[in-house]
Design brief:
This protein is of the alpha+beta class. The chain has helices at 15-33, 64-78, 88-94; strands at 3-9, 43-49, 55-56, 59-60, 80-81, 84-85. A two-stranded parallel sheet has the order 1-2.
Length: 98
């Protein structure tokens, strides 16, 4: 029996959205098996965790707002070379793709 465990930040999704997510995940699993009888044994567990249980980038998570900030922080970090910010062109010249 397939078991899918999804962990989410508490309060981000409504009950209806979580039910729709479970249905969609079950449908994806069904694409690999194909037997309709298999649908009845697909388990989807959606677990909500409170924000004070989460840490991202060594910092406590402040909810969905923090999740949106994380890509911005990563972009800034990747653009740092030798302790100073560089333009995309300078970055590309110093770190050419291989």
């Amino acid at each position: 029996m397939p078991f899918v465990h999804i962990k989410l930040v508490n309060g981000v999704f409504s009950t209806d959205q979580k039910e729709a997510m479970a249905t969609a995940i079950t449908d994806v699993i069904m694409e690999f098996d194909g037997s309709e009888a298999f649908r009845e044994v697909v388990w989807v567990l959606i677990e909500e965790l409170y924000t004070d249980d989460w840490h991202v980038g060594r910092r406590p998570l402040a909810g969905p707002k923090s999740l949106m900030q994380t890509p911005c922080n990563s972009k800034t970090i990747f653009r740092m070379i030798n302790g100073h910010t560089v333009s995309n062109t300078e970055f590309a010249q110093q770190m050419p793709p291989k």
